[in-house]
Design a protein that fits this description.
Two copies of one chain form a homodimer.
Chain A (H helix, E strand, L loop, with lengths): L12 E10 L6 H13 L4 E8 L4 E8 L2 H8 L2 H14 E17 L4
Chain lengths: ~110, ~110
């Protein structure tokens, strides 16, 4: 595994693309984000995750899952439900969630 | 449109997820990244793009396209080919590219 990258299998698998704009101030966000990032990756069917947030507060987290059932199970996980509620109430001024089926993938620059 | 977010139509459409780790130093990267981000969004079939890069140099750019043909055309665009070559030679120590079909999407926190 290369630091920061998810080690995903051959497609097909699923990607949950979460783009979000943070509100000002922490309000417990950083601690919860770290916890959720690690918790997600321990969920059955989770293949890994990647995350980046720029200085303007816009962030993208992509989590990879084996199938739709694993995505649904993670959405309903108890601690994740708490985080989702706080996200709506405190942490995000806007977000977009997109669920997509990965059809092909490649990496670089080595080995192309 | 909300700043930083792509205004995408109802699914289905495609997402090209590009996760990359920058090398040290600029080497012309920032100027080219800005140019390519704008150029991509003027391509036929491009529905928008979102991008974030953290202080550790890990970045995620997601570009949205109407169909596979638009993705292939963008991959072959002349100025983009130059940028891809420089990306491999100079700018990225590693990257992962995944092409995925967006099946469902929603936004928040307003209007849920």
């Amino acid at each position: 595994m290369i630091h920061g990258f998810a080690t995903t299998p051959q497609p097909p698998y699923y990607a949950v693309i979460f783009t979000s704009q943070r509100t000002d101030g922490d309000h417990g966000y950083e601690a919860m984000a770290t916890t959720m990032f690690e918790l997600a990756q321990r969920q059955p069917g989770c293949l890994g995750a990647e995350s980046a947030r720029g200085p303007d507060g816009l962030g993208i987290t992509v989590s990879y899952f084996a199938d739709e059932a694993s995505i649904r199970a993670w959405k309903q996980e108890a601690r994740h439900l708490v985080a989702q509620r706080l996200g709506k109430e405190r942490w995000y001024s806007h977000y977009e969630m997109r669920v997509a089926k990965v059809e092909r993938a490649y990496c670089g620059p080595e080995g192309r």
